[in-house]
Amino acid sequence: MNATPASAPAPHPFTLRLALGLVGVLIAALTSGLNDRVTDIALADIRAATGISYDQGSWIISAYQAAEVAAMMIAPWFAVTFSLRRFTLTASAGFMLTGILLPMMPTPTLFIALRVVQGLFGAHCRQC
Asked: How many other C-beta atoms can be found within 10 angstroms of the C-beta atom of residue 38?
C-alpha cells in the first residue's frame, strides 16, 4: 500500500495582522466621516474664530469635499504604486498633521488652503 504523508493543515485565514488591518480601515473611515460631521456642526464657531463671512465659511466645507473627491480618483493608483501600507500611513500622517495645524492658521485664506490639503489626504479614508 502506498501511503502519502499527511499535509499540514492550511493556516487560518483570519490572522492578527488581518484583524489589525481591518481595525485600521475602520478607524480611517470613522475619522473621515467624523471630520465631515464636526466641520458641519462647528462651522459657525469656525467662522467666528477666523472672522469670515457666511459665504467664505461655505468654502471651508466645499474646498475640502472638492479636494477629497478629486483625490479619490488617484488614490487607488498611489496605493498600488507605492504599496497600500506606505500610502495609508503617509496619508494618515498628512491628515493628522493638517488637522493639528488648522487651528493655528492666522488668515481665512490659509485656513481654506490647508482644508484643501487635508481633503487631498482625507481621500484615502473614503476609499476604505
From this structure: 11
User: Is 17 buried (19+), middle (13-18) or exposed (0-12) by CB count in 10 A?
Assistant: exposed
What is the Cα–Cα distance from 39 to 25, expressed in whole angstroms?
A: 21
Report d(CA 55, CA 12) in Å as an integer: 55
Helix axes 108-126, 84-101, angle to 10 degrees: 150
CA distance 47 to 14: 47
User: Which pLDDT value is given to residue 98?
Assistant: 94
Total-model pTM: 0.77
Q: Are 22 and 109 in contact (CB under 8 A)?
A: no
Report which secondary-structure segment, H or E, holds 62: helix 54-72
Residues 9-18: tens digit of each pLDDT: 777 777 888 8
